[in-house]
Amino acid sequence: MRISTSTIFQTGGGRISDLQSALNRTQQQIAAGRRILTPSDDPIGSARALVITQADAVNDQFAINRKSATNTLSIAESRLGDVSSTLSNVKSLLISAGSGILTDQERTYIANELQGNLDQLFGLANSTDGTEAYLFSGFSSTVAPYTKTQGGAAYNGDQGARAIQVDTSRQIPISDVGEAIFGNIRTSPNQFNVVPNPLNAGTPTFSAAINVPTSANLTGNNYEVVFDNTGLNFTVQNTTTNTTVVPSTAYVSPATVTVDGIDISITTAPGANGAPGPGDKFVIQPGNQNIFETITDAINALKTPASTVQGKADLGWRLQQANSNVDKSLSNVLIARTNFGTSLKELEQLDAGGEGLGLVYKQELSEIQDLDYAKAITELNQNQVVLQAAQQSFIKATSLSLFNFMN
């Protein structure tokens, strides 16, 4: 069979080119430390490596989310610790203010100290997570949750609780609704809390309810119904603003007046003591308060002179109610801190699991992608020897011709 010169060159050159490509590929594998450089090197291994790489990237993102959640929850828990300390100080001041030996001036000093604690609570309630996001305003993280009002504070946030995805099937709340911590102080199971003065002589039936048509006028303030020295006439005062909202009105049972969206009803019960007595008083408060309203009410009570028997009785039950409300608020804070602490503990466990999963992913990727250096170096040496042999053979083969025999 005759083999042309061009065939010899094409065959030899192609073989040398293939051997050179194989040598280069091995050198690239050694330089990169990877067995798979392109999907064509191992289609099945490449597909599996892609899936594992994506899963590992998601796991890394969860780790970042957990770190962010841990930072936010740690700040929130720390702020609630400060709230607990402040409320404990408030309770101590209220107990001190109840001493019967204090003068009106001394109670004013306590009221001023309570004001400082109230301002501190405002700052804590409006805390941020360090990224200008408010901790206790729900989904409305760009809105300060509380603003001061004459009667205490108004909540500006919503009822949503922000959460972050920290695992495939787990979201962790990273904040709490301000009203769940600083509000939700139930003073009565009804819409309003109606409290008779301890020194009242009469026992009429007294109730308060929302007047639906005028409910937009609700203020959240405290009111007081006061009977005059005859017990035959009454006035209604807004004790938060120190204004009279219902002037002196003759009492005829049953009597109903509507004030700022509230229907106030008074009915004389049968019996000798059923009718209101001279100077009888009834306080009307919202059935649900926040701690800012409680402390504001206590401050106002301490600033009111209480040198008479009636005044001391008023002060006594107001401070007693304030103490009870502070206890309820402390309970709310404790529940929130417990929830945050539970979430932080869960994040620690998820972190440990995520780290273990990351190691598994990296080990699987290593088994699929990483290069066996001993095998690769052996193959490199083999390819070099084969390439050199092919080059030498090509030189010998191309030098064979009739001209050599003629010479």
Automatic annotation (TrEMBL):
Superkingdom to which the source organism belongs: Bacteria
One Pfam family from the record: Flagellin_N
Coiled-coil features, chain-numbered ranges: none
InterPro entries assigned: Flagell_FlgL, Flagellin, Flagellin_N
Domain Flagellin N-terminal positions: 15-139
Protein family: Belongs to the bacterial flagellin family.
Name of the molecule in the record: Flagellar hook-associated protein FlgL
Location of this chain's protein in the cell: Bacterial flagellum; Secreted
Keyword list, A-Z: Bacterial flagellum, Cell projection, Cilium, Flagellum
